[in-house]
Design brief:
Cyt_b561/ferric_Rdtase_TM; binds protoporphyrin IX containing FE; globular; mainly alpha; Four Helix Bundle (Hemerythrin (Met), subunit A); transmembrane helix; 6 helices
Length: about 230
Amino acid sequence: MAKGDGGVGAWTVVAHVLAVAATALVLIWCIHFRGGLALRSHNKQLIFNIHPVLMLIGPIVLGAEAILSYRSLIKISSSREVRKKAHLALHGVALAVGAVGIYAVFKYHAEADIPDLYSLHSWIGIATISLYALNWLAAFLTFFFPKASPDTRRSVVPWHALLGLLIFGLAIATALLGFLEKLTFLQAPPMHLVSRYGAEALLVNFTALIVLFLGGAVLLATANIDSTRYTAM
Ligand code: HEM
Ligand code: HEM
């Protein structure tokens, strides 16, 4: 659906529903199955639990809502400036929530005596959050304050949108790796804390699947399908 045509596309609605579902599922997992959340505790696992919850609510759920805000807020405000402020602010909150989530996992590692940045998840994760912060800053300077010239803004915006979707895709991939990694730790010998075939394993795998579908729905909601591009039929 074209932007600004007065309606909210079906994929945007699907993305909202999946975003709510993913938030509920990660909270059920970390609070009901994993014992709860705490930034300070003798039980270091509770410090870890902050990480998946905030990474999901931040760069993934609020990040998705920020990307969709140009389309989903069309009924609330037809002003592009208002929606631009919502986009900027939601991405800002997403980034701040993500930064606290990363702080929590570093704190957990420090207090549980676990080395930092040894896994594929952690490498892609640190790259993702850094690119998210850089993209936010570059876009703020270009589109908001002090603002580049109209010509520059026009030529930068497609790159901003493409890079933004790429970074969002990286956040989705990082989260999938994170769920898989944590589940593997919990299932590994000698502790076998979680059964391979039980309810908790199913819940974590299903949450990751919902996150993947959320990524797909955001991509489909923002895709501008242009059939005139294809000439060799
Ligand atoms: C956008 C989403 C995410 C980002 C950017 C991210 C980033 C990171 C980073 C940078 C670390 C390294 C911390 C250190 O070395 O001290 C880490 C650790 C970890 N994260 Fe995530 N994370 C995300 C989502 C998740 C999710 C959803 C889970 C699911 C449980 C998860 C599970 C873990 C685990 C188990 C560790 C500790 C082991 C390791 O360092 O690989 N992460 N994460
Ligand atoms: C990491 C943070 C950000 C990400 C991931 C991101 C991502 C995106 C995406 C995917 C789009 C395309 C949306 C669509 O097609 O409907 C977009 C559009 C846009 N973004 Fe961002 N963005 C970020 C931060 C910012 C900031 C801080 C500003 C500053 C004002 C900004 C300004 C814009 C503008 C002006 C558009 C064009 C909207 C239009 O005319 O359709 N973005 N962004």
